[in-house]
Amino acid sequence: MKKLLQSEWISRLIDTLLPVFAAMIALLLGAVMLFFLKVNPVEAYKALWDGAFGSTNAFAETLVKATPLLLVGIGICISFRGDVINIGGEGQMIIGAVLATWVGLNFTGLPGWLTITLSMLAGFLGGAIWGGIPGVLKAYFSVNEILSTVMMNAIAVQLMNFLLRGPMIDPAQAEMASQIPQTARLEEIFRLPRLAPTRLHLGALIAVILAILVYILLWRTTLGYRIRAVGQNQHASRYAGINVKRYMVLALLLSGAFAGLAGATQVFGVNYRMITDGSSSGFTGSAGFNGIVAALFGGLHPILTIPASILFGALLVGANKMQRVVQVPSALITALNGLVVVFVVSSEIIRKRRQRRREAVAKHENESAPPPSNGKQVNQVEAGS
Fold this sequence. Notes:
- By secondary structure, the protein is mostly helical.
- Helices cover 77% and strands 0% of the residues.
- It has 16 helices and no strands.
- Helix 3 (56-81) crosses helix 13, helix 4 runs antiparallel to helix 5 and helix 4 crosses helix 13 (287-297).
- The chain is globular, with a radius of gyration of 25 Å.
């Protein structure tokens, strides 16, 4: 029995470390690519490390990049635990940012802290609406949520382009021929506080606190238990009296809400205005997609998503310095990040297969084990004989 428990513990430890092994393999493949480009991999990765952690300012930039990844990631933890797949983080970030920016530009007569609070709530609400629509389509009309969330991304991008080139365009840009798609700049009183002289803002601390609260929600409340129960087995949950459709919608709604909050923090903590190049990544920096990978890397656990987000934030920041120092093409940086994404997602598939194999072995051992003997009956037989 002790040996069985030890092997089970080791197997679960391996499952936990699978994303780490996957990232290491991806970096090794990246080293091979660097070698063929006649670049010293050690020098390149040293530049990557220095760019992400080499100074106080570098580490602050890593945390700035990690903040939207963490906010999107903890939302992904909720939706994936509820067995609904949210690929719409990009669109939810955009809609959350649009509503938050509108509040910040129009409610200028209020105290700064109150306008910031209302803007964050508006971003939260905007993302929730944009995530809740696919949730309703999934729960009540059986529309595939992967397809609907991706399509909602496209709608959000076009809506953003329309607003930033029309109703919400900076008045100064409207008078110029350039017509850059951006809003007016937020007043200084309506910006999230920064840790001078870095760009690290209060949103990073908010994201960490929310990750802890989401952990409590999922594992210490009835609401979180029901979301996870629906994700584990919808039929059993329905038999137990849980309204499956309601919690499917709620999972996507909350997931979108945190993505919307990520968009709001980008505006109020980093850019101080909403600006785009016409694509979703022009504003989000692909945080809506990278947040999914950060959540998977953290095993869909909100607390473990914190270091996972920092890791991917470090890759994004450090890769820029690596490109400058060793003069590698920008396409290689994209390929390196893509390798990490592919291997981390693949590790999740391997983990699920290992889990199913363990369950099958345990079931087989239970079925083949001999029934326990009844000591009392044996003693009576011996006494009678």
